[in-house]
Amino acid sequence: MQIQYIGEHLLPGQLGNFFVVLSFAASFLAFISYYFASKEALLDNSWRAIARASFRIHAISVVGISATLFYMIFNHYFEYQYVWQHSSKALPVRYMLSCFWEGQEGSFLLWTFWHAILGLILIRVGKTWEAPVMAVFSSVQIFLASMLLGVFVFDYRLGSNPFMLLREHPEFMNLPFVKVPDYLKSLDGRGLNPLLQNYWMTIHPPILFLGFASTLVPFAYAMAGLWKQRFTDWMKPALPWTFFGVMILGTGILMGGAWAYESLSFGGFWAWDPVENASLVPWLTFVAAAHVMLINKNNGQSLSTSFILVIVTFLLILYSTFLTRSGILGDTSVHAFTDLGMSGQLLIYLLFFLVWAIVLLAMNWKKIPALVEEESATSREFWMFIGALVLVISSFQIIATTSIPVINKLFGTKIAPPLNAVEHYNSWQVPFAILISILIGLGQYFKFKKTDMNDFYKKIVLPFMLASILAVIAAIGLGMNKPFHYVLLFTSIFAILANANYAIRVLKGKISKAGSSIAHVGFGMILLGALISTSLSQTISSNTSGIDITKLGKDFSNSDNIMLRQNDTLRMGDYYVTYSGKHTESPNIYYQINYLSKDATGKYAPEFTLNPLVQTNPRMGNIAEPDTRHFWYKDVYTHITYADLEDKSTDTAGYKEPKTVSMKIGDTLFASNSIVILDGLVKDVDRNLHQLKDSDIAVGADLRILDVNGKIAHAVPLFIIKGAYLMPEAANVDELGLQFAFTKIDTETGKIDISLMEKKSNVKDFIIMKAIIFPGINILWLGCLIMIIGTVLAILQRLKKVQLK
Asked: Which residue of 283, 359, 446, 576 pairs with 596 in a disulfide if CB–CB is 3.0 to 4.6 A?
C-alpha cells in the first residue's frame, strides 16, 4: 500500500521542476530562433521576435528556479534532498544564501542566473550583433540548464535536480525512516559546511560566478565574428566587456583570498590550492586577451591572437569547472566538489565548445586579416604583446601542474604532485611576477608605433632611481636576503612609482584617463604586499610552556605552537600572552587571548585582545577560525590548533577518567600540569609496610614528576600479585592532584602500563595556539582596492570611446 506522507510540501518542488524544464526548453528554442535570425537571407524579424521572447522566458524561469529553491531553504523544507543536505534549523538567516550555492546544483544555477542577466543586457545593446551573439549565449544556457534536469536518457542521468525529494534520492529511498508517514516531524537538515558560515561566503561566490559568466560575452562576440566573418568588427563592442570581466573575476578571486585569510587556519591568503588555481588561470589569460585586443584596436595587429586568447579563456572556465566538479581533484584539494555523476556531461560540455571553436578558427584562419608590418621593438604594442605572452606562459605552468591528476587518469601515469605546492609554484611564478612588474612599469612610457628613446629614458629615470633607493632601504630594513625576492621587491616598487609618475606627470593628473595607470599601481602593490607578507611572515608562537606538545600528534610542533594554561602568562615573540578563558555563543566557542607588554618595572600592560574561535559541528567536524589584530604596518594572526571543548567550570569533584600509557624506562607521560618520567623499577619493596607474604610478588615504578614551576616530586605505584590475584597499589601526589597505578608488565617488550588519574578541580583548562605576524599585508589589500578602481575608470573610458564612435 502506498504510504500517505504527512506534512510534505510538494507544490514548491513541482513548481521548481516546471521552471527547470521550461528553462531548458526556452533556451533551446532561443538558440534555434537566434540561429535562423542570424541568417542574412531572412529579412523579416519574426525569428528574432521568437528568439527574444524565448530567452526572456528562459531568464524568468531561471529566476523562478532560484526563488523557489531559496523559499524552500528559508522555510526548512527538509523533504527535499538539496535543502536537507545544505541547511538546518539552527543555521542563522544570514547564511541562508550560502546554502543556496554550496552544492553543485546551486552553483550551476548561480552561473546560469548571471548568464541570463548578461544575455538580457546584450539583447538591448547588441544591435546588429544580437542574433549571432545570443545564439552562442543560448547554446551555453542549454548546457547549463541541462545540469539541473536530473532526468534519465536511457541509462544515463542528465544533470542533478535540486528539487528531488529526500525519500526518492537513491541514498535514502530504502532507509527505514523514510517509510514512516510523519518522518518530517523530527527531521533536521545536515547543515551548512562550517567553513562557509562566514560573511565572505555570502558575497564572494556571486562575484566570482559573475566573473566566470562575464568571460562568455567576449567569447560570444569572437565566435560570432568568426561565424559571420566580421573579423574586426567584434572587437569594438567586446573590449569594454573584456575589461569588465577582468575586473569582476579578479575581484572575486581577491575576495576568495580575503575569505581564506580571515576564515581558514592555514595562515595566509593563498595556498596554491587546485581550486584557487582553476579560477586564477582564466583570469591571467583574460588579462592577456584584454591587452592583445588593445594592440589590435590601435594598430590592427594580433587579431588572430585576440581570437585565440578570448576563446581559450572561456574554454579554461569550462575546464576549471570540469576539474572542480568531476571529483578528479578530490585527493588534492579540500575545496573541490565530489562527483555527482556529471563528469561525462561536463566533459561533453567542454568538448562541444572546444570543437566548435576549433572548426570556426580552422575554416576562417586564412581569411582573418593579418598586417605584415613588423612591430618596432620600441613600440608599446610590442611590449604589451610580450607581457601577454608572459601571462600565458605563467598560466600554462599553473594549469599543467594542477592537471597532474587528469594526466594520470588519461594516460595511466603516476606523476606525483609537488610535495610542497607553495614552494613549487612560487619557484616558477616569482620570476614571471618580476617580468610582469617590469613590463607594467615601462609599458606606458612607450608610444604606439614607435618611441623616441631619449624621451623614454628621461621619463623613466626618476621612478627607476627612486625605486632603486627605496628597494635597497627596504631590503636592508626588512632583512630580505633571497635574490629573487630582492629583485621582485625592486620591480614591484618600480611598477608602482613608474605608473604613479605617468599618471601625474604625463597625463597631468587627469583621473578619467589614468585608469590603466591606477590599475597597474594597484597590481604592483598586490605584488609588493604579497612578497613582504609571505616571505617575511614570522611565526611567533614558539612553545615556552615547558610541556612537549608533539605527543599530541604529527601536526603539532613546539617551534610554531604554544601551549597556554588558563591565566598563565608566557613570553611569545615581542609580546606576553595570557589565555583568560572562553565563552560559548552556539555554535561558536570563543577563546580570549590577551596580548600584553612588560615595562621596565616588570608590570604587564594590555596591548590588545584576540578571540579566535572553534565552531562546533558534530556532523561535519569542528572548525577553527582565526582572529586578527590589524595594524597599519602588520597583522597579528592567531588561531586555535587544539582545545579541550569540555566545560571545566562545573563538576570539579573527584578524578577525571584515567588514561593508561605503556612506558619503558626513560619514557615520559604528560599530565596537564606536569611531566612524568619513568626512571626505573623498584624491586626492593618494604614488604612489612605493605603487608606482603613471602609468596607475594611486588615491584614498584619509580616515577619522577616535574611540575611547570620546576619542582620535583616522586611517586612509586606498586604492581602486586597476591596468590592468583593482581592487586595494584596506587600512589598519590596530592599537591599536584595526581594518582598513579602500575597495572601491567609486558615481559616481551619490557614495557609497563601506568594509569594516570587527575583531580578535576586541579586540572586547568588549556589551549594550543598558533600566532603569525604578517608584515605589510595591508599593502596587498589596499592594492586590491586601487586595482579595482583603476579598472573601473578604464572601463568607463572605453565605453566613452565606443559611444563617441
From this structure: 576
8 A C-beta contact, residue 718 and residue 685: yes
Q: What is the dihedral of CA 227, 232, 235, 236, to 10 degrees?
A: -120
Number of Cβ within 10 Å of residue 38's Cβ equals 22
**Residue recorded with cell 587546485:** 274
CA 533 – CA 190 distance, rounded (Å): 38
Q: 633-692, pLDDT tens digit by residue?
A: 999 999 999 887 766 555 555 788 888 999 999 888 878 778 899 999 998 888 888 788
Residue-wise pLDDT for 742-798, tens only, equals 999 988 888 999 999 988 766 678 899 999 999 999 999 999 999 999 999 999 888
3-class DSSP state of 703: strand
Positive or negative CA dihedral for 369, 372, 374, 379?
A: negative
The answer to whether the CB of 571 falls within 8 A of the CB of 544 is yes
| C-alpha to C-alpha distance for 346 and 160, rounded to whole angstroms | 12
Report residue 560: phi and psi, to 5°.
-135, 15
**DSSP one-letter string for 630-682:** E-SSEEEEEEEEEE--S-TTS--SSBPPPEEEEE-TT-EEE-SSEEEEEEEEE
pLDDT confidence band for 100 (50 / 70 / 90): very high
- Give backbone dihedrals phi and psi of 108, rounded to 5 degrees, phi first: -60, -40
Q: How many CA atoms lie within 13 A of 272 on its CB side?
A: 21
- What does pTM read for this prediction? 0.88
Using the 8-state DSSP alphabet, how is residue 159 labeled? S
Q: How far is CA 423 from the centre of its chain?
A: 18
> By the 8 A CB rule, do 141 and 58 touch?
yes
Q: List 670's β-bridge partners, or say none.
A: 675
Gyration radius from the chain CA atoms:
33
3-state class (DSSP) for residue 303? helix
* Helices and strands per DSSP (H, E), number in the chain: 19, 23
**Contacts by 648-651, CB closer than 8 A, 24 or more apart:** 648/760, 648/763, 648/764, 648/765, 651/760
Residue 450 φ/ψ, nearest 5 degrees: -160, 150
Among 264, 333, 782, which residue's Cα sits nearest to residue 533? 782
Give the DSSP per-residue string, 578-624: EEEEEEEETTEEEEEEEEEEE-TTS-EEEEEEE--EEE--TTT--EE
* Residue 198 near residue 262, CB atoms below 8 Å: yes
Cell of 551: 605527543
| Neighbouring C-beta atoms of residue 657, cutoff 10 Å | 6
Q: Are 49 and 35 in contact (CB under 8 A)?
A: no
What contacts 777, CB < 8 A, 6 or more positions away? 261, 269, 529, 532, 533, 634, 635
Whether 410 has a pLDDT exceeding 90, the answer reads no
| Closest-CA residue to 55 (of 133, 163, 171) | 133
Task: Spell out the alpha helix ranges (H) of 38-182.
Answer: 46-74, 81-86, 96-102, 104-125, 130-146
Cα diameter, the chain: 117
For the record, the C-alpha cell of 380 comes out as 608599446
End-to-end C-alpha distance for the chain, whole angstroms: 73
**CA–CA distance from 418 to each of 274, 322, 404 (Å)?**
12, 21, 10
- CA 15 to CA 28: how far, in whole Å? 20
Are 579 and 591 spatial neighbours (Cβ–Cβ below 8 Å)? yes
Instruction: Tell me the sheet residues that pair with 582.
Output: 591
Query: In this structure, what C-alpha cell is assigned to residue 730?
Result: 596506587
C-alpha separations of 439 from 287, 471, 496, 768 in Å: 14, 18, 12, 46
User: Any residues with CB less than 8 A from the CB of 514 and at least 6 apart, and which?
Assistant: 502, 503, 507, 790, 793
DSSP 327-376: STTTTT-SSPPPP-S-HHHHHHHHHHHHHHHHHHHHHHGGGS----PPPP
SS3 425: helix
